[in-house]
Amino acid sequence: MLFARLFLLLQALVLGGFGVAYFTYPQEMAALTGMILMQGSAVVDVRAYYGALQLGLAVFLLSSAVRPAFIRPALSLLTLLFAALALGRTGGLYLDGTVGQTFNLYAMAYEATSAVLSYIGFRRLPG
């Protein structure tokens, strides 16, 4: 249970940090991936989807880490989310022919590793 709690806390910190960064500096963060936000509506979308969504997830993970009944659902959610992100990014890199793009390779490695670790945490829980 300790591993699961620590993992949830770590993910909450990482996702919360990225959420704050995307909400506060949407143009700069989007530029890291090569995106250019050309209209105000694009900036609002990045703040909401990349910022607020990650912040909301971080709050859920923090609250789950201190509530034993929420640990299993939180790890299950992270396993599915990170696996979907890693598979989606892998498919996108393949389809678009941009396999050598450093940012996406690091992001994919983080997502795949997080999916595996959250699954391990899920499987190690009693019951």
Strand content: under 5%
Q: What's the story with the biggest beta sheet?
A: none
Q: What is the H-and-E element order?
A: HHHHH
Helical content class: over 70%
Overall, the morphology is globular
Low-confidence stretches: none
Give the termini separation.
11 Å
By DSSP, the count of extended strands is 0
Overall mean confidence score, pLDDT? 94
**Structural class by SSE content:** mainly alpha
Radius of gyration: 16 Å
Separate helix tally: 5
Domain unit count? 1
How are the secondary structure elements laid out?
Elements (H helix, E strand, L loop, with lengths): L1 H23 L1 H7 L7 H26 L2 H29 L5 H23 L3
Helix pairs in contact: 1-2, 1-3, 1-5, 3-4, 4-5
Protein name: DUF4345 domain-containing protein
Keywords: Membrane, Transmembrane, Transmembrane helix
Describe the structure.
Helix 4 runs antiparallel to helix 5. The chain has helices at residues 2-24, 26-32, 40-65, 68-96, 102-124. By secondary structure, it is mainly alpha-helical. 85% of the residues lie in helices and 0% in strands. It has one domain. The N and C termini lie close together (11 Å). Keywords: Membrane, Transmembrane, Transmembrane helix.
